[in-house]
Amino acid sequence: MVRVTRNCLFRGLLIASIYSLGILGIVASGSGGGGSANLINCGPDEVANQNFSAQAPIAIDINVVNHNELLLNGKHGNVSVSGLPGVTSITVTGMKRVLSESAQDAQSHLQYLTVTAQDLTTQALLRTNQPQCELGRKYIVDYAITLPDFFLVRINNNGGEVTIDSIDNEVSINNIAGTVTLTDIVGSAAVDLISGNIVAEITSLPLNGTIQMKVLTGDINLEIRTTTSADFTARVFTGNITLTNLVLQSPVVTPNLVTGTLGTGEGNIDLEIEVIGDIDVLGI
User: Fold this and answer.
1) With 282 labelled, which of 40, 63, 176, 211 sits at a CA distance of 20 to 30 A?
2) Which residues on neighbouring strands pair with residue 80, listed in sequence order?
3) pLDDT at 44
4) C-alpha dihedral over 193, 12, 236, 211, to 10 degrees?
């Protein structure tokens, strides 16, 4: 028998609802209790498989003026973000792809898959745009992004690998499925993942900084400095918690929960596996 906590059940139902809405093309309008749901007419051109593909490159340059934040709202695809010292622009390259039952159909639907960039004063917004009704096709955009290393980075993605490296600021990732890898992050980090693994190296956690990582099913592997100062909590529903080369003050240890204080506890580290998976934290 598999036992699921109320929070896990809610998250599972939420994701199921998201997929159902995406497949059916249901859009809610209005506010409060007065909203209504309308079924979009997606047309009859549903395909039977995804055996063929068509692709085209993407290339966008955004000059950095007053910007200090990147927000990417993706869909399906891999995302790579690298911080570089001294650069004055955000460079976006990658590939957009459509999978369908014929090369001709895939090619004809490439036009409906676009990437837009918006300048929101201090924030640069990138967005994947695709048909609301996929009708058996799959629309994918893979991003490779370089930007100034002082940027705050926020990524929202529906599925794919997300890799962020060399950022001297806060990073935040919401992803449904796929491995999330953080390397050489100097700042706070927040990751919310439904299915997949988190592999993270936080080079330096600022005073009062936070590391918050949550996975429904998958593992969390975290490397932090042995000098990190933070209140520490790690919890699993089914799985193991391992700390290596770290000293917890006032530890509380049970099979499913480890709490305590690292250093003098200025910051906060909160790690959670909601259904099944292991947590490994290494001091370096």
Assistant:
1) 176
2) 144, 163
3) 61
4) 30
Distance CA 120, CA 245 (A): 43
CA 55 to chain centre: 24
pLDDT reported for residue 212: 98
Instruction: Give dist(CA 241, CA 220) in Å, integer.
Output: 10
Block means of pLDDT (10 residues each) for the chain, 284 residues, are: 36 45 32 34 75 96 92 97 96 96 94 93 94 92 98 96 98 97 98 98 95 98 97 97 96 95 96 98 97
Query: What would the DSSP string read from start to end of the chain?
Result: -----HHHHHHHHHHHHHHHHHHHTEEEESSGGG-EEEE----S---S---EEEEEEEEEEEE-SS--EEEEE--BS-EEEEEETT--EEEEEEEEEEEESSHHHHHHHGGG-EEEEEEETTEEEEEEE--S--TT-EEEEEEEEEEETT-EEEEEESBS-EEEEEESS-EEEEEEES-EEEEEEES-EEEEEEES-EEEEEEEPPTT-EEEEEEEES-EEEEE-TT--EEEEEEEEES-EEEES---EEEEEETTEEEEEETT--EEEEEEEEEE--EEEEE-
State residue 42's pLDDT score.
55
Tell me the two tokens of residue 91.
């460079």
Spell out the residues 6+ positions from residue 182 whose beta carbon is closer than 8 angstroms to its own.
Answer: 164, 165, 171, 189, 191, 198, 199, 200, 201, 202
| Count of alpha carbons within 13 angstroms of residue 71, beta-carbon side | 10
